[in-house]
Amino acid sequence: METHKIMPVPLGRRPPWPSVYGQIARAFYGIEGVTVDRNRLRPLVIGNTRPRDRSEEEIVGYRMALNWIHTDSHKIPVTPETCLRLHSLAQGGTSGDAGRWKTTQNDTLEIFPDGRREVRFQPLAPDLVPEAMEELCLSYRNVIDQLQVTPLLATACFVLDFLCIHPFRDGNGRISRLLTLLLCYHHGHEVGRYISLERIIEQSKQDYYEALKTSSTGWHLGKHDVLPWFTFLLSTWRRAYREFEERAERQRPKRGAKTDLVEYALQSMISSFGIADVEQLCPSVSRDTIRLVMNRWRKQGKLEMLGKGRDAKWQRIKER
Which of 45, 169, 253, 274 has the fewest C-beta atoms lying within 10 Å of its C-beta? Predict the structure, then answer.
């Protein structure tokens, strides 16, 4: 295999909601082929039970890697050491080479319906991996620091190069998705805290593999085209933001909800009160909105103002 030297070209705090962990676990199951009892999936993801086999250890390990990213992403640098630690966590202690670069060649195979196998892609040889990963991380940090390309393009290229290097014997796919999440957080794209990117990728798994295959062609010669892979990632991020927007829209209070809240607070007032008292009962409502409702009630004969000035008191007028 031809030796490849990576060129410095465009390379590529709050934990997520519990439901996202479930989505990630299901996507992990779909992409990685990990088998686990459905009844044990939620306890494993939440952390209420101990793993009892290798598949469960991988689920728990992946959760630990996610916890690290979600809580400390701003402190995690893009270095080979970070990649090694993510691999060590994500493997869940299921193999002796967790957190270590590969020592044997791991070609990517394509299995056809008739059982025939062909090498789809040949990653770097094991002895080239340490230097390649060092240069990949260095090149990425350089293009980001020098503002040579947009951050999302740099992220896509970094992940593509990582997958082409294939630095680990096993688990390269899951580590690439963890790195994608981490780099997105570095650049302020934190939709992954609320929408599972893993699930979206799992739902478009065929497109994922097709884009990766197309963009990795010619990689060893430096003649590959990152655009198909970049386009796939852009579509993934766009779907995530669109889904988040739809969820947020469903959670948005109905029009007039704040007015209803103020009116409910006014109805509960028994003695005289000030605007500050209403604000305490309606912390999410602005003072201008509270004044607007109170003035409308006064015109309707439901409130009367006792005195004048900022400290004036108000009192409800009892209905006859």
Answer: 253
Confidence class for position 103, pLDDT limits 50, 70, 90: very high
The percent helix, strand, coil of the chain (3-state, each to 5) is 60, 5, 35
The pLDDT, as a whole number, for residue 62 is 85
On whether both 114 and 208 belong to a single domain, the answer is yes
For the whole prediction, is pTM greater than 0.85? no
Bridge partners of residue 304, in order along the sequence = 315
What ranges make up the beta strands (E) of 60-216? 108-111, 117-121
The CATH code of the domain that includes 307 is 1.10.10.10
- Residue 159 contacts residue 176 (beta carbons within 8 Å): yes
| 73 contacts 139 by C-beta, under 8 angstroms | no
Element (H, E) at 137: helix 129-145
Verify that 65 and 170 share a domain, yes or no.
yes
Q: 114 and 40 share a domain?
A: yes
Encode pLDDT of 7-31 as tens digits: 333 333 334 444 455 556 655 556 6
Residues 149 and 270 in one domain: no
pLDDT of 257 higher than 70: yes
Average confidence (pLDDT) over 162-180: 94
In a domain, 9, yes or no: no
- Is 1 domain-assigned? no
Residues 207, 223 within the same domain: yes
State the amino acid at position 236 in one-letter form. Answer: T
Q: Is the pLDDT of residue 155 over 50?
A: yes
Q: What is the identity of the amino acid at 288? A: D
The encoded tokens of residue 56 equal 């469960």
Element housing 306 (H / E): strand 303-306
Count of Cβ atoms closer than 10 Å to residue 297 Cβ: 19
Q: Which of 90, 105, 229, 261 is nearest to 156 (CA)?
A: 229
Q: How many domains does the chain have?
A: 2
**Structural domain that includes position 286:** 257-316
Does residue 58 fall inside a structural domain? yes
In contact, 111 and 137? CB cutoff 8 Å:
no
- Do residues 240 and 289 both lie within one domain? no
